[in-house]
Amino acid sequence: MASDRYPGMAPVACVAALMALSATAATVAGSPRLLTLCAIAALPPIAMLWRRGRASAHRGPAAGAVAGDLSPDRQALLAAAQGMEARLEHAPIALFSIAGAAGENAVTPLNASARRLLAPGRASDPHAIGRLLAAQASGGRALVSYETERGAERALAAVTALTVQGEAQRLAALLPVESQLEAEALNAWRQLVQVLTHEIMNSLTPVASLSRTAGDLLAEAQAGLPQDVSADLGTALDAIARRAASLVDFVGSYRSLSTVSPAQPEPVAVRDLFARLSMLMAPQWQARGGRAEFTVEPPSLEVMADPGQLEQALINLLKNAAEATSDTPQPQLLVSARLSRGGRLRIEVADNGPGVPEDMAAHIFTPFFSSKKQGRGIGLAMVRHLVHANGGMVRYARPVGQGARFILSF
C-alpha cells in the first residue's frame, strides 16, 4: 500500500478526502439521500485517521517527545486525528469493525454508542446483532430490526469495505431510527384519521338529519298511505337513522386520536400514580379471584409527563389486560416501575392471559386494527399516541412464559 511506503501521505490523503467530501456535502445540503452517501463515503478515511490517532496516543510519554519534533503540518494532522477519535467515540451512531472471512466474522464495537447497544439491558442477544451486521453487503444500506429488552427496534445499517495497514475489513454504521419512524407513522395516522373522520362526518350528518325529517313527514302522511307501505317505510327510515347515529358515534371515537390536547408535563410521583390506579383497578381483579400488584423501586421515582395523559395510557393498558384475561382462572396483573440503564424510567405492565398471537404482534398499535370481534382498534393506538406525546416509547415485549408484557420507557 502507498501508506506503508510513504507513512506521511496517508493522513494527508485522508484529510484531503474529508475536505473534498465536506465541499461536496455543502452543495447537496438539500438532499438527505446525497448527504447520507457523503457520510458513508467519509467513513474509510475517518477510520484510518482514528486508528493512526489511537496508535499515537498509546505510545506513552515518548509520543509527546516525538510529536514535538514533528513539523507543524504533521502536528496539525496528529491533533486532527486525536480530535476525530474523540468525536467518533461520542458520535450518536454505533460504529463496528467487521473482520474475518464469511462465516467467521468478528464484529468489534468501535465507540461508546456501539458498546452501549451491546451492553446488558439493551440488546436481548448481542451476538444476533453481530450476525446481522456481518450479513450486510458492503456498500449497501438497509433497514434492519433487532430485539432489545424494550421490544423490537429498527435501525439503518450501512457497511463499507476498506483496507487499514494492509488488513481488509469492513466498517459498519448502525443508526437507530425507531423513534423517528414511530413519530412519522403517528403523524401520518393522525392526518389520515383527521381527513377520514372529517369527510365521513360531512356525509353522515345530513343522512341522519334527512332520515329524521323523512320519518316526521311519513308520520304526517300515514293516513293517505296503505298500512303495509307505511310500516315498511317507517322501518327503513328508522334503520337508516339508527345506523347513521351509530356511525357518527363510531367515527367520533376515532376522531379522538387526532384531537388529543398537547401534553402539559410536570413532575409526577409514580408511587402516587400507582396508588390511584390500584384503587381503581385492583377490586375488579380481586372480584374475579385474581390479583393486581403495583410496585415502585425506589418509591421516590418521578417522571416528567402530563399526569392525566400518562394515567389514561396506563388505564387503557390495564383495561386491555383485564379483557385479555377474562377467561383465565386466577388472573394476575403485575405493574412495576424502576430505573433501567441510562437512568430511563421503565414501566412494565404484564398479565397471565393468552398473550398476543405472533402474527399480530407487529400490528397491535396500528389504528383500526383489533384482534377482538367487537374491538375498534383505538385502545393501544391511543396508548402509543399519549406515551409518544410525553416523550416516551411503548413496546410489546414477548414474555418468557405466557401472557402479554408491555414496556413504557421515558
Automatic annotation (TrEMBL):
EC number: 2.7.13.3
Annotated source species: Pseudoduganella rivuli
Reactions catalysed: ATP + protein L-histidine = ADP + protein N-phospho-L-histidine
Protein name: histidine kinase
GO biological process, one term: phosphorelay signal transduction system
Keyword Kinase: yes
Keyword Zinc: no
Record's signal peptide: 1-25
InterPro entries: HATPase_C_sf, HATPase_dom, His_kinase_dom, Sig_transdc_His_kin-like_C
Keyword set, alphabetical order: ATP-binding, Kinase, Nucleotide-binding, Signal, Transferase, Two-component regulatory system
PROSITE patterns, per the entry: HIS_KIN (PS50109)
One MF term in the entry's GO annotations: protein histidine kinase activity
Domain (Histidine kinase) ranges: 195-410
